[in-house]
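Project outcomes to date are best conveyed with an example. Our students and postdoctoral researchers have been running inverse folding experiments weekly, and each run begins with a structure described purely in tokens. The record below, which covers 595 residues, was selected by the lab manager from last quarter's runs and is presented without edits.
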């Protein structure tokens, strides 16, 4: 709001840099926080549960404090940064497109919708109450979320009819394209915001089905533990793949539905997509509360287990709350993924506008400039190459994140084993573990491992854009959006299913704690930890970082191409490629073994 008030017409350009900074911070928080928490978690599970046969949060485990601290670093701080970035990037796209689609009103209305979200968050938190008829805490949380969504829809409808006129011609500062379209701005705004709110509710239901204890997918994963860890892994992967398809269809349907509201105008259609993103974020306060519920319940159970004083019914309640927390974390990750896709799609529209503006600035209305109107031709081999590279970068980024957890967890495992070997009194309770050493290892490794993923996210679009052209860059971004959506949902939901399958076995199903089935689900949970808490969540900011980098460098790419500065373009592309290659080689030289 301050940027809009200060810079006015130039606010969209200034906000591009603001959004890029927020996206980079969120990516570092997601990757670094995820590496910290999962390195400690994996290390604590492998040595504590599997090798020493002690509970996850046993005070004798040197990694237990780092594990509990990591929940706050990865989930609380990471999700807050992720959603802040989603707010920032969605508003950047909405303001850029809103100025073109709604004129001066387009710079104000996208700010009104998130402001309504503040009111909704306050109401949503206060109406969260557990009823005597509720079978689990999840019912109270779901009820609060859906009531908040309804309140948001009503308030947005009121604000729309109060602020916006009934026709585009009554607005000031419109482009010629927008003014020629016969669309009711009130209908467009309300419809787009409602699509975003409905999408959030649909993802809540869908993700809950695939990750909640007692639902068939999690029951199937838990039942597969009777035949070993391999079938647990296969069952969890199957759940992740299936859920990714349905989530992607929901998100695609929301994008297409919002696009249809534009009445044939590309600018208005993409503005509607960005408004759907702001609508989805009206419930962001409740979403953050839901996500924070997970670490709070997890840490509460950990403290109770370390104290040894909470047993029987109290311990069972904490276990149930922890399982609900796993589901809420999976749900909020799904919603965060949807915000990333909506924001990236809207930014993609801003990207195409940037191409046209840059071409017109250099060449005016000449035929050379007009060819940039259809620059994203999929029949161009360079664009196809860009599409493939965009999809591949998501896989490379995910592999780097998971490999980073593997290396950091290896260091934690070695440290914990060393403490048990050198201090046998730890297991007897006569010596205290050195918890701080594990925290130091997790902190050091998580910061060091940020370098390669960060360079990949920034340099890859620069290399593609300057090396293959602006059309290939657009295809690259499209490939990253599509693949990133599926990969993020797959990683998040498969990890959540594995985690809650383990909770089911620990509740006494299929043999209970200490059984072969329990050991099998521990393996599944350990594999799922970096899936759902490191690689999966980090893909959201990755998509937005790459889109913003593309948006920022597009004018330079077009200018160099139209002025035949191929030498400079190739030099920049070569430099960016060499930076990526060096970072990857340096990353691969480090050991990947946990042993």
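After processing, the design step wrote out the following sequence:
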């Amino acid at each position: 709001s301050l940027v809009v008030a200060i810079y006015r017409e130039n606010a969209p350009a200034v906000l591009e840099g603001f959004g890029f900074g927020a996206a980079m911070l969120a990516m570092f928080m997601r990757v670094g926080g995820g590496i910290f928490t999962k390195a400690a978690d994996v290390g604590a599970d492998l040595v504590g549960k599997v090798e020493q046969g002690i509970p996850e949060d046993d005070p004798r485990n040197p990694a237990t404090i780092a594990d509990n601290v990591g929940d706050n670093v990865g989930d609380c701080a990471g999700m807050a940064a992720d959603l802040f970035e989603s707010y920032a990037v969605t508003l950047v796209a909405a303001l850029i497109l809103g100025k073109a689609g709604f004129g001066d009103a387009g710079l104000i209305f996208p700010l009104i919708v998130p402001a309504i979200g503040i009111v909704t968050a306050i109401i949503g938190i206060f109406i969260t109450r557990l009823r005597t008829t509720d079978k689990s805490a999840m019912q109270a949380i779901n009820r609060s979320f859906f009531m908040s969504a309804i309140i948001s829809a009503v308030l947005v409808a009121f604000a729309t009819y109060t602020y916006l006129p009934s026709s585009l011609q009554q607005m000031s500062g419109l482009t010629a394209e927008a003014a020629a379209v016969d669309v009711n701005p009130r209908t467009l705004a309300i419809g787009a915001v409602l699509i975003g709110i409905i999408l959030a509710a649909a993802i809540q239901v869908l993700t809950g089905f695939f990750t909640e204890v007692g639902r068939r997918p999690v029951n199937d994963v838990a039942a597969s533990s009777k035949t070993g860890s391999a079938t647990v892994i296969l069952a969890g992967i199957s759940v992740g793949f299936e859920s990714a398809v349905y989530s992607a269809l929901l998100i695609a349907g929301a994008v297409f539905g919002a696009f249809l509201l534009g009445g044939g105008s590309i600018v208005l259609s993409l503005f509607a997509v960005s408004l759907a993103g702001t609508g989805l974020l009206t419930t962001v306060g409740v979403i953050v509360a839901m996500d924070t519920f997970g670490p709070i319940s997890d840490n509460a159970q950990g403290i109770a287990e370390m104290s040894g004083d909470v047993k029987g019914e109290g311990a069972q309640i904490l276990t149930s709350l922890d399982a609900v927390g796993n589901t809420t974390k999976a749900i909020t990750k799904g919603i965060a993924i949807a915000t990333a896709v909506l924001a990236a799609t809207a930014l993609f529209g801003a990207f195409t506008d940037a191409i046209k503006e840059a071409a017109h600035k250099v060449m005016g209305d000449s035929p050379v400039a007009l060819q940039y109107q259809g620059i994203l031709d999929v029949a161009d081999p360079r664009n196809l190459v860009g599409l493939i590279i965009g999809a591949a970068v998501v896989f490379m980024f995910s592999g780097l994140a998971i490999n980073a957890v593997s290396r950091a967890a290896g260091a934690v495992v070695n440290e914990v084993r060393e403490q048990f070997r050198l201090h046998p009194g730890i297991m007897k309770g006569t010596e205290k573990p050195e918890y701080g050493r594990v925290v130091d290892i997790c902190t050091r490794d998580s910061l060091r491992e940020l370098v390669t993923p960060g360079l990949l996210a920034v340099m890859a679009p620069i290399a593609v854009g300057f090396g293959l052209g602006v059309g290939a860059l657009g295809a690259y971004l499209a490939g990253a959006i599509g693949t990133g959506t599926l990969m993020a949902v797959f990683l998040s939901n498969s990890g959540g299913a594995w985690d809650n399958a383990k909770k089911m076995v620990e509740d006494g199903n299929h043999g209970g704690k200490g059984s072969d089935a329990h050991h099998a689900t521990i393996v599944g949970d350990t594999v799922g930890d970096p899936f759902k808490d490191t690689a999966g969540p980090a893909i959201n900011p990755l998509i937005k970082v790459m889109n913003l980098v593309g948006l920022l460098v597009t004018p330079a790419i077009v200018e160099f191409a139209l002025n035949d500065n191929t030498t400079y373009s190739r030099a920049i592309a070569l430099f960016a490629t060499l930076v990526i290659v060096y970072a990857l080689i340096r990353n691969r030289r480090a050991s990947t073994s946990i042993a």
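The chain has 20 helices and no strands. Residues 2-589 form one domain. The training component of this project remains on track.
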